[in-house]
Amino acid sequence: MKAFTLALLLSGFSLAASAQMKDRVASAPGGQPQPVTSAAELTRQMASRLKLNEAQYIRLRTVNQIKLARMDEIQWQYQQDPAERQRRLTELEAQYEQECQRILTPSQISLLREELKRDAVPTPTTPAGNGLG
Questions:
Q1: What is the rounded CA–CA span in Å between residue 32 and residue 28?
Q2: CA distances from 129 to 51, 87, 123, 132 (A)
Q3: Closest by alpha carbon to 13, among 87, 90, 81, 95?
Q4: How far apart are CA 98 and CA 39, in angstroms?
Q5: Helices and strands in the chain: count of H runs, count of E runs
Q6: Are the CB atoms for 50 and 111 separated by under 8 Å?
Q7: CA-CA distances (angstroms) from residue 57 to 5, 51, 86?
Q8: Helix, strand, coil shares of the chain as percentages rounded to 5?
Q9: What is the DSSP string of 93-110?
Q10: Which residues of the chain have pLDDT under 50?
């Protein structure tokens, strides 16, 4: 019952955050919405890479919805304070990983961590030539 209440509360927060996001995008200069990965698309990608079962997919989709909504909220709320924004995003990522550990198997978690490391490390680019012309 406690988990259901928490899920209901968190889904309410995600709805409120998405409504705020729509208002912000509508008032953005140029009216061009920024591309945002949907929770369903993110979860589909994870399902194919991590071989999720149906129960894991459903639970992870909810967690992804909450994470994306909260990320948008943090980006908007702390746009003037990059240090605080980064701290909050790091905290959110730690909470996300804890939730994933409750849902995924140990082998799936290790695959996820490998992908996160690979995505977090930018590949160095070397310029073609000497940079002139």
A1: 7
A2: 43, 39, 18, 8
A3: 95
A4: 18
A5: 5, 0
A6: yes
A7: 20, 9, 28
A8: 75, 0, 25
A9: HHHHHHHHHHHS-HHHHH
A10: 4-10, 13, 15-17, 21, 23-36
